[in-house]
Amino acid sequence: MEIVAFGVQADEKPLLEKAFAGHHDIRCLDVFLNEDTAPIAVGHDVVCTSVNCELGERVLQTLGAGGTRMIAQRSTGFNNIDLTAAERLGMTIARVSYYSPYSVAEFAWALGMAACRRVVRACNRTRDFDFRLDGLMGRDMHGRTAGVLGTGKIGEAFCRIAHGFGMKLLGWDIAENPACVALGMTYVSKERLLAESDLVSLHVPLMPATQHLIDAAALKTMKDDAILVNSSRGGLIDTAALVAELREGRFTGVGLDVYEAEAGLFFLDKSLEAIEDDTLARLVTFPNVLVTSHQAYYTVDAVTQIVDATVRNVLDYKAGRRSENVLVPAAAD
């Protein structure tokens, strides 16, 4: 059986090919799955997708008509998939429920520290042999307060790093994580967390209840000199509202590895094109804002775990087994 995989990065391709060797052939494509590219999958029982692929009802209908019965998503998030339509079409949908939480937590801290210590601005200056320190003053993290929205596996890893810095910990989640409490975390309301935290990091999934979790009102609650980091999902932040606050000169720094309208932009080379997204174009002009292209998970450790889990999901599907990774079981099950 040949599997077609969409949105495969150059570094990811050899890992996928090696992992599937001896099991199934895999055809790796760098294009993302959407309404235009869905016909490529005709004749493939299994389609492998990334988080920036579009799997709405019309795409799923095209896949189903072409013989696809299983979607193996190479990510934990699945907000890009219409699960109701998939169930109606009798498709099996599986994702990767776990991979290295340290990859994302460590990158979130890389963004936070780069923003705090003006690392990007300093590097740009030294390339021009400008070695002045004007405007590069940062601050210690030790003794300050880290607010963590979402204290699951990634949030917990983020807290452990914050604890190593000697920071006070405030948390917000639907349930307390005992490991975070053991680190000294105090669980509080979202409003108190935003008002008291010097650095706020987002580690919650994107769902209707968390869409624009950080909206205009939440942003105004934060300290003027706070640092905001998002390495989870772009839709957690109302970006237009964030731009409005940045225009007022607020926040020491903002580190974003995700963007709510990143589909069709992230993972692609747009350097020779005019960017039509005015919000993103304005966002990247602020000197205290860092934007990276959804790379927090992108370590050899995490990607290897994602690939291995994807292979297991496909093998389980072919063998009629169901694991915790299955979001929608086939109707035949």
Write the layout of secondary structure elements.
Elements: E1 2-5, H1 13-20, E2 25-28, E3 46-49, H2 57-65, E4 70-73, H3 83-88, E5 92-94, H4 101-116, H5 119-127, E6 145-149, H6 153-165, E7 168-172, H7 178-182, E8 186-187, H8 190-196, E9 199-202, H9 216-221, E10 227-230, H10 239-247, E11 253-256, H11 278-283, E12 289-291, H12 300-319, E13 326-328
Parallel strand pairs: 1-2, 1-3, 3-4, 4-5, 6-7, 6-9, 7-8, 9-10, 10-11, 11-12
Antiparallel strand pairs: 5-13
Helix pairs in contact: 1-12, 4-6
Offer a concise description of the structure.
The protein is an alpha/beta fold and 333 residues long.
Characterization of this structure:
Residues 8-327 form the D-isomer specific 2-hydroxyacid dehydrogenase catalytic domain. GO terms for molecular function: D-lactate dehydrogenase (NAD+) activity. Belongs to the D-isomer specific 2-hydroxyacid dehydrogenase family. Keywords: NAD, Oxidoreductase. This protein is α/β, with parallel strands linked by helices and 333 residues long. The chain has two domains: 2-99 and 299-328, 3-Layer(aba) Sandwich (Rossmann fold); 101-291, 3-Layer(aba) Sandwich (Rossmann fold). 34% of the residues lie in helices and 15% in strands. It contains twelve helices and 13 strands. The strands form two sheets. It has a seven-stranded parallel β-sheet with strand order 8-7-6-9-10-11-12, sandwiched between helices. Strands 2-1-3-4-5-13 form a six-stranded mixed β-sheet. Strand 6 (145-149), helix 6 (153-165) and strand 7 (168-172) form a beta-alpha-beta unit. Helix 1 runs parallel beside helix 12 and helix 4 crosses helix 6 (153-165). The longest helix is centred in the last third of the chain and has 20 residues, at 300-319. It starts with a strand and ends in a 5-residue tail after the last strand. The mean pLDDT is 95.
